[in-house]
Amino acid sequence: MRIIPLALLLLAAAVASVAALHGRERDAKITPATVPVSNVSASGSGLAMQPGSQTSLGAFRLSRGRSLHLASAETVDGKSCLLEATDGEGSGSVCADGGLFAHRKVAFAIDSQGNPGALSELRVVGVVAPGIRAAEVLKSDGSDSNLELARDGAFAYESPAAELARGVYPSGFKLYGASGKLVQVVDFPTRQ
Fold first, then answer.
1. For the chain, what is the domain count?
2. Partner of 104 at 20 to 30 A CA spacing, among 6, 42, 97, 174?
3. Low-confidence ranges of the chain (pLDDT < 70)
4. In this structure, is residue 105 part of a structural domain?
5. Do residues 149 and 155 lie in contact, with contact meaning Cβ atoms separated by under 8 Å?
6. Cβ 83 vs Cβ 72: under 8 Å
């Protein structure tokens, strides 16, 4: 598994075409299982977590029967982290100074399999800030898809193989408040 840091994001792969694959669009299914936080924190990422700061955000069923577990935690040096662990693929984290929502109302990580121009899988996982009640993932072709948010605002989105084949990738989020009013649009950073 390869976690792509926010600064190195994915749209560089949009230039090349991908061989045709079959699939259908869907959010990963939320399951009621709790995140094995001890497994997530043992990610091997070298993060020193504050004791007792870890919070389970949810478990998701991914394609091919895999499970994804999300959690948040604080490091001893004051960073807030989104932690993920995927059965059979390992784990990773994305951390930010000032809190997960210091710069935007969503914290997220992008994971891909394959090479730029030949992605076989692409998923966006994350959590929305308190007060966000609905979210959509925006796509490079101008379309969007609703995200299914777990109780604590966590989500997992897998790009359909057919979209990957056409060079259509997630490109951002629209975030909505309790009244249904648009609160924020977040564009993914692109590589220059």
1. 1
2. 42
3. 1-46, 88, 90, 191-192
4. yes
5. yes
6. yes
Q: What is the pTM of this model?
A: 0.75
The whole-number pLDDT of residue 45 equals 53
What's the sign of the alpha-carbon dihedral 21, 23, 25, 26? negative
DSSP-derived 3-state class of residue 14:
helix
Q: Is residue 160 part of a domain?
A: yes
Domain span including residue 138: 3-187
Q: Is residue 33 part of a domain?
A: yes
CB count within 10 Å of CB 121 equals 18
> Is residue 192 domain-resident?
no
Q: Which residue has the tokens 């951390």?
A: 95
Residue with tokens 């076989």: 120
Q: How many residues does the chain have?
A: 192
Note the pLDDT tens digit of each residue in 79-114. 999 999 988 676 888 999 999 999 899 999 998 888
- For 72, the token pair is 């948040």
